[in-house]
Amino acid sequence: MTWIDAHCHPDALSDPDGAFSEAQAAGIGQWILPGTEPQQWRAAGQRFSSDSRIRLAFGHHPWFLPNSEPDLSALQAMLSDYPPCIALGEIGLDFHQGKTPKAAPELQERWFEAQLAMAAEHRLPVIVHAVKAHDRVLALLKHYPDVRGVVHAFLGPYQQARAYLDKGWYLGCGSLILKSAKTREAFAQMPVDRILLETDAPDMRPMQPQHTNPLLDLLQTADCLAQARSISLAILMAHTSANVRQLFQKF
Length: 251
What we know:
The protein has 9 helices and 8 strands.
């Protein structure tokens, strides 16, 4: 058994093959690569679809939405071209007022709902990006009770986590656990069979990374989570790997 990184972007690494080899030697054996927008989907599909270590997901990320009403024809074509696609993602809502312009919240919600409806139609789980938008994400999920998924890079308190857990959802634990006591407490309290480990590599790195290879950040996150829960790394690996396979049935 190996660790599984449930969310990373090796297509953004300068030397993904070298990074994979080093990570495999350290006990990380499989990776999920979520999509962001059509051009990236096609490039990732061509580059990684034949790599047995990688599983692909495709989705319209809220950062990269066109300023137009939802049109999922390109996404439907990708699902037809790459039937092993394990999820729609990453999709979601981002209401953070940062420097990068984003689609208006109302338009983001329409794209998000359209993709949730597609996930329900295709019986696929979803990978959700939610920033300053959890209340709206949870409200919209009420209309799609059969859709399950994972909230990527969860940062909130346990009370917020509980709202997702009550819907049968999973939460992604990344390096933010190293920076936030609130996040550590939330992940320490939630059921271990609802946690996925992730790096978001090469982004979302620890403040003090132990390695130059961002894929190895998973080990730092795993060690912190195991200590917070007072369990062994072997037990954590067994649970989080099983969780990935439980959520992503095509894994």
